[in-house]
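$ run holo --ligand "magnesium ion" --emit tokens
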Amino acid sequence: MEQQLVYSFGGGRADGRKDMKNLLGGKGANLAEMAGHPDLKLPVPPGFTITTDVCNAYYEAGRKFPDNLEKEVASALKQIETLTGKVYGDTANPLLLSVRSGARQSMPGMMDTVLNLGLNDETVQGVIAQTNDARFAYDAYRRLIMMYADVVMEKAAGIPPVQGKGIRKLLDEHLEAVKKKRGFQLDTELTEADLRQMVTDFKAIVKQEIGQAFPDDPMAQLWGGIGAVFDSWNGKRAREYRRIEGLPDEWGTAVNVQAMVFGNMGDDCATGVAFTRNPGTGENHFYGEFLINAQGEDVVAGTRTPQPINDYSKNTHSESLPTLESIMPEMYAQLDAHQQRLEAHYQDMQDMEFTIEKGTLYILQTRTGKRNGTAAVRMAAEMYQEGMIDGPTALLRVNPNQLTELLLPRLDAKAERAATPIAKGLPAGPGGAKGKAVFSSEKAIEMKRAGQDVILVREETSPEDVDGMFHAAAVLTAKGGMTSHAALVTRGWGKCCIVGCHDLDINEAKGYFATPDGQKVHEGDWISLNGAAGTVYLDQMPVVDTDLADNEAYQTLMNLVDQTKVLGVRANAESPDDATNALRFGAEGIGLFRTEHMFYGKGSEKPLHLLRKMIISDTEADRRTALDELFSFIKADIKKTLSIMDGKPVTVRLLDPPLHEFVPHDTERLRELAKELGVKVSVLKKRVLVLHENNPMLGHRGVRLGISYPEITETQVRAILEAAAELNQEGKQALPEIMIPVTCSRNELEDQEKIVQRIYDEVCTARGVDEIPYLFGTMIETPRAALRAGPMAEKAQFFSFGTNDLTQMSFGFSRDDIGGFLPIYLEKGILEADPFQVLDRRGVGELVRLAVERGRKQRPGLKTGICGEHGGEPQSVVFCHRIGLDYVSCSPFRVPIARLSAAQAAIEYPRD
Ligand code: ADP
Ligand code: MG
Ligand code: MG
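-- output --
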């Protein structure tokens, strides 16, 4: 049997279904579902979908349509004609069509749609005769010329934008000039005669600028449109979007051809966009915007302020505008009924397009709506509670990285109250951001690459801005509504955005904007945005964290997470403060406690001095004196952390200080130290010289220090065990795990174990206790340690994989110097991802898997976890689950992400 190239829909039936996205694209599959599914049978204008296979065949054949296509299109077109009672290209009762693209996944604004196909000087007379509305007919005609010239004749044909600005802009300028000459404000004021003349003018401009005439033949228009959709799959904008989102080029796009319906035939017509739930907050309330007497793109383009569909959808700009519910109650009731059925059917929030043509409602599109992180969590939790979806579905609905948004910094409320906004726009959300104002996409990319935070300020954004928007910390536009391009794209990314900020007078070319009271903000000036309130401030405002405790939806979801996941999640902490944060984010313990932090920053003077003293000492006695003094600092730090984590394990890693970083170099410090140690400055300088290493990363660090200077291990172990013993006596439950870093052999562990046991006995005796619970284990961060996991496990009760160092040593890539070649490796596809961010499963991951296997063979109950940066990266967490680790440990801020990832892993890869 021959492959079906064209799938029809309409009149209560359809060839396709919603699960045929790969073949029909998202738009086509859902149009078929809405038109044909017995539970829906919604009023969808009839049409047909040309499959993605045809797109691929088109490219394979060197941009040629397959043989059978013409025949199948002709017969599908016949069906539309039968259902509508109109005929394509007929001069008496002409059918008009739209050609719409549609890939598997929605790509907002990436692909171009052409409306009103089928109009020419003869058919326009038929439209006039049928509608009795010449003004409307010529308006539709001039729109067709504009869209067709732009999409088909210029962009898809791949010719450079005419006059450097493009044909659409040129035609737009002509339209504006006519309006100005006639003294009009709005497009709607143009008369039939104006528009009739404009059609003639447009055609002349197109002919002159592009060097080709606008095709009069409706069939030429249709095939031109179809080819253009296929061509736009390989256009620059679409390729760029796919690159950013990591979508494969092989998917191809489908083409949807559909009978036109008109929201622009007068004041009893309208067109709009609606969501079954609020995509900004997740609240379960019908939400949307519409325009009276408008066609298609007008709502998204943001040139007119859209009206709210109901009171709930009002915002600062649309407060006073009448709602659809109030002016067309019957239409609103129908729309509301449809949206309820759609959500129940898809069991997820839908984003729909609708058009009202003279009292008849049509649904033109539905798709699973994009939402920000806050909304995603709320919808998942509430749909679960409503019984619409089950627990696993709810958990899989939220992309773990989206949780960052909930934890996302916001503008400091106090600072915000004290400041006066310079402008107010629509809160496209979420969170807050500060950055330097930039006015072009290129500048945004350039400054971001130079390490600066920028906020992209634009009149409005278009698909050409996507790369710049991606690099900006936030986006601010003067035009556009909550469903504008800027709002939709940033919503998908969870990026802070304010749209429709009419207060601003933006001069993109000169690189500044002016506020209503005449203040000017130039490129490079700091501004701050509150994306949840829509307020813009001058200068940089402090950006702070949010409170999760009173986010009910988050709590509901995370309860589900904890019931589902098997993998433990701990946090890496540097201080008692970190430990508090870790608990707040739901950590089940500390997987890596580093004490080195006490030598950095505030309050570090004294301990740092003591550490230096220890490093520089050349006798055991001097070292012990320094260590004895340091002891109380270490103990206090550990005790505080163990106490906060009461009842939860805390893995304390023994010191692994990069010695060279801590040696004093300035004379003042050296003199001070020399005096204290009772040696000459010159002697001290020599010692510093001796400490110099050519390759400190592979130098005298980790366990090597503990072996050459046992007193260093001794002091720390004593601090840990004493702190634990004291806490236990105070009625707390301390669960320390002593972790030896940078090991590569069993013998190193044996050496250190002896010290630990000796100190343990001493502390027990001194405290008069029989037992202090603790574990002894090691960090596995050298490839040899991983390979020798069996013997290592004879001594170690736990392994914690330090995947940062393990990656460094497995690849032989210096963590600090990878910037020189990584971009080239990624660009050439030699590496798929930065191995320091995404765990390299094939190499480093294999070492981890092997070590777990060998270690557990030796010691069946061996506890295993990872504590590298990878512990909070979703894909890496899934891998850790699959190879049977007990836990992952990551920075406190990433704990929720790791928890959700672990739950998703448990659903997708059940452990038996
Ligand atoms: P996008 O993928 O950019 O949303 P669409 O194909 O959905 O592109 O179309 C752009 C606009 O044109 C939308 O507002 C849509 O509702 C409108 N539109 C598309 N086809 C028709 C049609 N047959 N009749 C009326 N409006 C249409
Ligand atoms: Mg659409
Ligand atoms: Mg390390």
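-- notes --
The pocket of magnesium ion (ligand 2) is lined by residues 353, 365 (CB under 6 Å).
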